[in-house]
Structures are given as C-alpha cells and as structure tokens.
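Recap from last week: sequence in, structure out.
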Amino acid sequence: MTKTDIIRDGLRLNFERHFCQSEKIILSKRAFQQLLDEIEQQPTSETQKRRKEIKKYIMW
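Predicted structure tokens:
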C-alpha cells in the first residue's frame, strides 16, 4: 500500500462520515421565515468580500 493509498483511505472515511450522512434541520415557522427574509436581502459589502475570498480557495 502506497502513501497515497493510505491518505486516500483516510480522506474517504472522513468524507463519508461528514458528507454522505443526511442530516435534518428542523426550523420553527418563525426561524424559517427569518431565513427566507435574510435570503431575499442583498448581501452586505463584508459578505461579498468574504465570498470573493472563498472563491479563491475553491479555484485552488
């Protein structure tokens, strides 16, 4: 088994544990409405700045 195989196996286990298990998020009607209201708003300049920084890492 190569070093690469060992790393891949470790990453695969982490991926399956964190991303393949579905998770339910239950919101009250009020919390759900607050979320919808927030989604409808234009993002602040700070949020837009953070999104640009995140995109740099995604492209990496």
